Amino acid sequence: MSDDRNRDGMDELRDLGGEEYGDTGGQSGGDGSGKATGRKRRVIVGALIAIFAAGMVFAGWNVIGAAMANNRRAHAAALADCRSARTDYIRTYTSYTLAMSKAATLLKETKSITDSDARDRLRQQVDSLRGSGVEKLAAKECSAKQSRGELSDLADSYGRSRTVMVNGLTTVQYDSQTLQQMIDGMNAQDMRKQLSKLISRGELALERSKGKVDESKRSTLETELASAKHTLDTASSDDVTALNDEFARLKGVVDDIIASMPLDCHFTQCVALTFDDGPNKTNTSKVLDALKNAGVPATFFLQGQFVNGSNVGLVRRMTGEGHDVGSISWRHTQMHGMPAEQLRKWFDDTDAVISKASGKDVTLFRPPDGAWGDALRAQARDSGQAMILWGVDSGDWDKLGADAITKRVVDGAYSGSIVSLHDGNATTAKALPKIIKGLKDKGYTLVTVNTLFAGDIRPGDVAYGLNDVQRDAE
Question: Where are the residues of the annotated region Disordered (predicted)?
Answer without folding.
Answer: 1-37
